[in-house]
Specification:
Helices cover 22% and strands 27% of the residues. It has helices spanning 25-31, 97-103, 106-124, 197-209, 258-265, 282-292; strands at 36-40, 46-47, 57-58, 70-75, 78-84, 94-95, 135-138, 143-146, 152-153, 158-166, 170-175, 187-190, 213-224, 229-238, 252-257. The relative contact order is 0.14. Strands 10, 11, 12, 13, 14 and 15 form a six-stranded mixed beta sheet that branches. By secondary structure, the protein is α+β, with helices and mostly antiparallel strands. A hairpin with a 4-residue loop joins strand 7 and strand 8 (143-146).
């Protein structure tokens, strides 16, 4: 792959996670007053300024949130934390992550994605899954410790493959029933226990479309905090089988010609042809990689 920045969100501008600081409570306490704080509500939306712009809040302005805050990382000597919004200012404007990814600076958008994922985990893992004891969070919010059975709990990330499938001339895309009309995307699915990524590609493509993959190659990955996935992007060569979409997975799956994909990428469909995923997603990037001819399995 080339060294150019990826054409999708939540990758560029990542903070230095300074993992070694997570156990240094004195240093974290000293960093807190001037730290940048991202406050997210129960729906994963961030507090923002007028027009949806990011706000630069200081940790020192919210001392009550220190105990629940999670260290995101450092940027230029300044710490960044995320904390759940207690909801005491319901009139404050909020912005969802998809909107922020399209309008915020990349560092703020990427930090927002990190904050959304880890706070989602924290909110849904308050108790030990083994014995039911309430967890005690350590390591700046990244470890849940159970005092009942001594088990440790870490943030969960669900790996999923997302695949640009080609028969050499055409691109296989599918659509779900609740998507906007004419919207198609690359096929995707979660990795199962005991399964390699390559096996997942073969299984998921066949399950969703009945198309047989011959070989595949990894290209890139994208954190996808909706709520906690890691999308692993592949290009795959497949047999020119007639797609037969699974009723449980897709409403439709079909091959698209290079001309049809090019028209969609350039916006030449005139409101009638193929619609692709927005640039936020690695799906769009995979389609572009195939169309440029630089990706082959």
């Amino acid at each position: 792959m080339a060294d150019a920045p990826p054409g999708f969100a939540f990758v560029e501008g990542a903070l230095d996670r300074v993992e070694f600081l997570r156990t240094q409570s004195d240093r974290l306490a000293a960093l807190w007053p001037d730290a940048r704080l991202l406050r997210l509500d129960a729906e994963g939306r961030a507090l923002c300024g007028d027009g949806g712009t990011p706000v630069d809040e200081r940790g020192g302005d919210h001392p009550a949130l220190r105990a629940e805050a999670v260290l995101l990382g450092m940027d230029g000597g300044r710490a960044w934390f995320a904390a759940p919004d207690p909801g005491t200012d319901p009139g404050t404007p909020r912005v969802d992550l998809r909107t922020a990814a399209a309008s915020w600076p990349v560092r703020e958008a990427t930090a927002f994605a990190q904050a959304r994922a880890v706070l989602h985990w924290r909110a849904r893992h308050r108790y030990c899954g083994a014995c039911g004891t309430q967890l005690r969070f350590e390591r700046a919010g990244w470890l849940g410790r159970c005092d009942g059975c001594a088990s440790e709990h870490y943030p969960r990330t669900d790996p999923a493959v997302i695949v640009a499938v080609t028969d050499g001339e055409r691109l296989l895309l599918g659509r779900q029933a609740d998507w906007p009309p004419r919207r198609y995307s690359t096929l995707a699915g979660f990795v199962e226990p005991g399964e390699t990524l390559e096996q997942t590609v073969v299984r998921e493509v066949f399950e969703e479309s009945a198309v047989r993959v011959r070989r595949c190659r990894y290209l890139a990955s994208q954190p996808w905090p909706f709520p906690s996935s890691l999308m692993l992007g592949f290009i795959a060569d497949a047999e020119p089988d007639v797609p037969r979409p699974s009723d449980e997975e897709l409403e439709d799956a079909r091959w698209f010609t290079r001309e049809e994909v090019g028209d969609a990428l350039e916006g030449r469909t005139g409101g009638q042809g193929l619609l692709l995923s927005p640039r936020l997603s690695i799906s769009r990037w995979l389609v572009e990689a195939w169309y440029r001819g630089g990706a082959s399995a």
